Amino acid sequence: MRTKFLCLAVLAAILLPACRKEAAPAVPEETGTLLIHVDPGLPGTKAATPDITAETYETRVRKVDILVFDEKGQLNLYYPAGTALEGIKLSVTTGTKDVWAVINGPDLGTVIREADLKALKTVLEDNSTGDGTGAFIMAGNQECEVAVSQEKPCTVTVERFAARISLTKVEVALPAAYDKVTVKSVMLTNVVANQNIGGTAEPLEWYNKKGRTDAGTIIDGSAGAKATAEALTFRTIGTTVANGSSLSIPSPYRFYGYPNPTTEDRFEADGSFKEEQTRLVITAEIGGETCYYPVTLPTVKRNTAYEVELVIASLGSKDPDEVPRKGTVNATVTIHPWREGAVITETI
Q: Are the beta carbons of 305 and 257 closer than 8 angstroms?
């Protein structure tokens, strides 16, 4: 009996390996190389027509992040590129890729899907004007093909989320009874302050609504009456201009806001603010009286520049959100893309 069991054990030891299936060797994924160039299309530092002159903080690149997604929207590669805009070589699996570049953006280390990236929120204060550290957030994407064992160029054009509104000229042409105007301040009102990296967010957060603080005080720059995101939306002037002369503006006064698609003012049922067009408002004093000269902007678009010139011809409005009487102020708004090689697209 013991001999029988021993024979069976020996037979099993012989046959068992023959019955096993060997695991197929893993097939390595085919890869190629992307040679990435990030194109911010940043304007230079020389004046041009239209005005694409760049402030230092508008063109500063503090960091560049590259994200490569596959056709299913899954992250293939996240690469912090430092401040490099070109010569970025990345080895990735073959196929069609959606390549994103984010400049001066938030921490992207937790992104695992393209949808996650697109949904990330940005607010107006993510952009700053400080001479030493100020910078603007930009992003863009490009579909690129990766071929096996080949190096393929991939240019990703990025754009700012903000729009730039510049006051370039104020001329005083009042009736002869008035000898001068004191331009006290300039502010941007009804400013959209939210967006997402995908650029698809609806306006939900508004700054300087109707030219007022959240407490309802008319903004004038004093304590308790300051603009939100003041460095981006408000400027104190305090300059007196003789009638028949122009305000001296050696360098345009710059203001910034996120896209505002509103084409007409809308109000809640009780008459309170709902959605309004963005306005550039000049606050002036004439004969001891405070007057407002609001210039309503057309649809405010991302990475677009709006240049405002105006002529003060009569006493302005009593409220910063009140449309002035016809003939009170004559304004011209010139619109063009905010990038190198821009051409004027509209003048209103």
A: no
**What is the C-alpha to C-alpha distance for residues 281 and 300, in angstroms, rounded to an integer?**
15
Q: Rounded to two decimals, what is the model's pTM?
A: 0.87
Q: How far apart are CA 135 and CA 315, in angstroms?
A: 38
The string over 232-262, giving b where at least 16 C-beta atoms fall within 10 Å of a residue's C-beta and e elsewhere, is: bbbbebeeebebeeebebeebbbbbbbbbeb
Q: Is the pLDDT of residue 324 over 50?
A: yes
Helices (H), 135-271: 230-233
- In angstroms, the Cα distances linking 21 to 13, 18, 222 are 16, 8, 82
Which is nearest to 167 in space by CA: 183, 156, 182? 183
Beta carbons of 133 and 156 less than 8 angstroms apart:
no
Contact 13, 19 (CB under 8 A): no
Cβ neighbours for 29, distance < 8 A, ≥ 6 positions apart: 93, 94
What is the Cα–Cα distance from 142 to 98, expressed in whole angstroms? 6
Phi, then psi, of 229 in degrees rounded to 5: 50, 55
Of 174, 192, 190, which Cα lies nearest the Cα of 182? 174
Sign of the four-CA dihedral 258, 259, 264, 269: negative
Only one residue has tokens 């021993």, namely 6
Give the distance from CA 179 to its chain's centroid.
Answer: 42
Give the C-alpha distances (Å, rounded to integers) separating 78 from 27, 65, 103, 188, 240. Answer: 24, 7, 14, 37, 54
For range 303-312, the mean pLDDT: 95
Mind listing the domains of the chain with CATH numbers?
A: 31-160 (2.60.40.2580), 163-347 (2.60.40)
Task: State mean pLDDT over 256-266.
Answer: 93
Residue with structure tokens 């992003």? 139
Q: By the 8 A CB rule, do 192 and 208 touch?
A: no
Helix (H, G, I), strand (E, B) or coil at 12: helix
